[in-house]
Amino acid sequence: MFGLPSSMAGDKDAGKKLEDGLKAALAAHKDGTPQEQAKAVKDYFASLSPEQQASLAATDPSFVGNLDGVPVNVRFAANRISIQKEFDSENAYFKGLAPNDPAYKRTKDRVDTLRSFLNPRIKKFIDPKTNRPVEVEVPRQFLVFDAHFGSTADPKASPFADGRVAEVVGDLENSKNVAFRVPGITNRLDNFNSFSDGGFDLVKGKDGIEQPGTAVVSWLGYDTPEIGDSVDPAKAVVGGNQLNAFRQGISVNLQQDAKTSIFAHSYGTLVTSKALQSGLTNIDNVTFMGSPGLGPNIHSVADFHMPNTKFFAMRAPGDPVEYTQGHGDDPADFKDIIRLSTTGAHGHSEYYKAGNESLTNMQRVLFGGDHQPLTFTHTTLDEEQMGAAEVRELVKFLHERVDPEVVNRMGGDLDPIVQGLLNGRSNMKDVILPIHSVLNKYNMLDRVQPKELFGEVSKLAGNLAYKKVYAAAKDRGAPDFVARMAAGSAATASRAALGGVTWPVVKLLEFDRLQNNTRQLVGGLWSGGKKMWADGNEIATEIEKDGGRILSDGSQFAGTLFKDGGSIALDAGDTFIHPSHVIDNAGHALKSMDHIKSEFSAKTSDAARAFSNATNTTIAKGGDMLHTGLTTGNKALHKGKDVLDSALNFAGF
Q1: CA of 221: how far to CAs of 57, 166, 217, 235, in Å?
Q2: To the nearest whole percent, how much of the chain has pLDDT over 70?
Q3: Which of 268, 394, 446, 613 gives 20 to 30 Å between its CA and that of 312?
Q4: 86-94, long-range: CB within 8 Å, 24+ apart, which pairs?
């Protein structure tokens, strides 16, 4: 299927020997860069015959299929074997699931996706002999396949890890134009086709003809976040390093003069930004679309320090992700970036939709932006969608009041709840209380007080009303001063109306805040008090135990002293009466004195240890009690302030 002979493919012994040689070549460059390691692999494979290469692929397909430097057709063949094995395994598991099993739907989607990987696709191209369009079936080409990579998005919906996959469209090793596509959140093996479809669309020209000399790699090579952890940049940092290593490694398989482009979407733009900052510089073009921001330290293209790379940005009207700026400044607003038109696209997921100017512009960048008529835009948020600027202001308001670390932890706690909602295990009614519990856990009503929040919402609503009425009045030909007066009245009325509508909501939230703060105050005092009581009991128990031990040791020593002292006295009396017994009585008296001395030393040591133990326990637990008391008091002071503040707000002060 991929041009490799099968004569040696079944010879495991030959493949094992060849694999040992391959691993030795890698070991020799273990401290090298990804590109140096890939070059060593490439050189090793160049020394093998096609039969030997096929034997290696069949012997350890998961290793060979994901190893940079291996000829791409060998990787395609190896990953085809891995996909078949994984399909057989997961299909057998799926057949044992009942249709009402929570894991049924996503497992079915995953098995169907694996089956589609094994099926051929239709390729449409111009036959060079007849100069006419031709359609043929060709195998799908997977450069990376690991079904067990990454986290498990929702264990209840599927027991399988998200996986990593990279699919190639076109002749990667001989193309002059090569694109790497980087996806955003919630992309996994089970929904990979919805991502890879964009790669097929990107490589097509007019009438669906795939452009010669062009290859597109749809790279799902990092562990993408789900909804909850999408607020956390951690996976972008790791993914950026992985993207950089992949690009450097695959470079040994590309033409030296190949023009390379990255097309990144959503959270994938943050991943790409991290890759560029970690050393990914051998890229000719970078296009960001639907970006939540490129990191807190990137405010312009100049911050990448890549003067030989062209940067493009696209922001479709109605794309809420760009409005949030959840991970930094919107690249579409950078003064030194080339902003491309997206006419025809709307929202966050239509950039690759056929017929849209966004897809056409991406193709122009890929096929040669210098020679194709790129189209541009300079629209503002208000021109794209009225209210977008207000959404951005509201998100900024929230960002200023909630620490990013709190947002990250809260997102992690909310994700299982969201997963249950998305996968049909719960409905909105079921998740209201759990979400409420998480928000209260992080004291969100203290961080963003209801009165302040709705005041901001009212202000922004007034601004939006002003803009809409002003625009409507101007469209009807009203003079500017008339339009401004009408807009001002509308803004005032909007704020007043919204204030009346939201007053009960604010009061309800303030009561909720008061209740939660009171509960936390009482709970903190109770918890601290219980710990102090337990520490006090432990001190008393230890003193009682060790004090009893000291008393017991004293009693035992007193008994020894009485007994041995009496014996010495009797020996002395006997010597006086029978002087001839002096030697025996003296020896007996010395033994009694040694016994007294030994008992005194032992019991004194035991008593000292018991006293020291009691003292240490008292100091340690007393310190714990003091620390607990101070901590509890400090928390009570702060929480008491919150209680008082929420009570005053609820009362209307």
Answers
A1: 21, 7, 11, 12
A2: 81
A3: 394
A4: 86/114, 86/145, 86/147, 87/111, 87/114, 87/115, 87/117, 87/118, 90/114, 90/147, 90/160, 91/115
**By the 8 A CB rule, do 306 and 281 touch?**
yes
DSSP type of residue 581: G
Enter the tokens of residue 268: 């994938």
Whole-angstrom distance, CA of residue 272 vs CA of residue 380: 25
Q: What is the DSSP string of 173-236?
A: GG-SEEEEEE--TT--GGGHHHHHHHHHHHHB-GGGPBPTTEEEEEEE-S----SGGGG--HHH
Higher pLDDT, 538 or 329: 329
Phi, psi (deg, nearest 5) at residue 481: -70, -30
Identify whether the C-beta of residue 599 lies closer than 8 Å to the C-beta of residue 557: yes
- Rounded CA-CA distance 502/422 in Å is 29
pLDDT at 149: 97
Q: What is the DSSP letter of 460?
A: H
Q: Which has the closest alpha carbon to 642: 443, 507, 441?
A: 443
Q: How far is CA 569 from CA 117, 580, 588, in A?
A: 104, 17, 11
Spatial distance between the Cα atoms of 356 and 360, rounded to a whole number of angstroms: 7
**pLDDT > 90? residue 423:** no
Q: What are the helix (H) ranges across 369-449?
A: 381-384, 388-401, 404-422, 428-441, 444-447
DSSP 579: G
Main-chain dihedrals φ then ψ at residue 261, nearest 5 degrees = -135, 145
Q: Who has greater pLDDT, 531 or 132?
A: 132
Q: Which residues of 575-613 are buried (b: 16+ CB within 10 A; e: fewer)?
A: beeeeeeeeebeebbeebeeebeebeeebeebbeebeee
**3-state SS string over 436-459?**
HHHHHHCCHHHHCCHHHHHHHHHH
292, 327 in Cβ contact below 8 A? yes
Asked if 480 and 531 count as a contact pair (C-beta separation under 8 A), the reply is no
Return the pLDDT at 42.
97
Q: Cβ(69)–Cβ(40) under 8 Å?
A: yes
- Determine the residue type at 169: V
* Phi (first) and psi of residue 542, to 5 degrees: -65, -40
Question: From CA 345, how far away is CA 47, in angstroms rounded?
Answer: 50
Helices 104-118 and 192-203 sit at what angle, rounded to 10 degrees? 30
Where do we find the tokens 């290859």? 215
For residue 10, the 8-state DSSP code is T
Phi, psi (deg, nearest 5) at residue 166 = -140, 125
Tell me if 163 sits within 8 A of 188, measured CB to CB.
yes
Quote the radius of gyration of the chain (alpha carbons, Å): 38
Backbone angles phi, psi at 49, to 5 degrees: -80, 160
Q: Say if CB 358 and CB 287 are below 8 A apart.
A: no
Dump pLDDT digits (tens) for 23-32: 999 999 999 9
How much is the pLDDT for 15? 83
Q: How many whole angstroms separate alpha carbon 187 and alpha carbon 215?
A: 22
- Measured torsion, CA atoms of residues 299, 305, 306, 308, in degrees rounded to the nearest 10: 110
List C-alpha distances in Å: 123 to 78, 268, 388: 22, 28, 41
Q: Distance between CA 557 and CA 603 in Å, rounded?
A: 7
Distance of CA 120 to the CA centre of its chain: 34
Residue count of the chain: 653
Residues 144, 236, 82, CA angle at the centre, nearest 5°?
15
240-251 confidence digits (pLDDT tens): 999 999 999 999
Q: Rounded to an integer, what distance in angstroms lies between the CA atom of residue 592 and that of residue 330?
A: 93
In DSSP terms, which residues pair with 204 in a beta bridge?
210
- Closest by CA to 329, choosing from 315, 310, 342, is 315
Reduce the DSSP state of residue 520 to 3 states and report it: helix
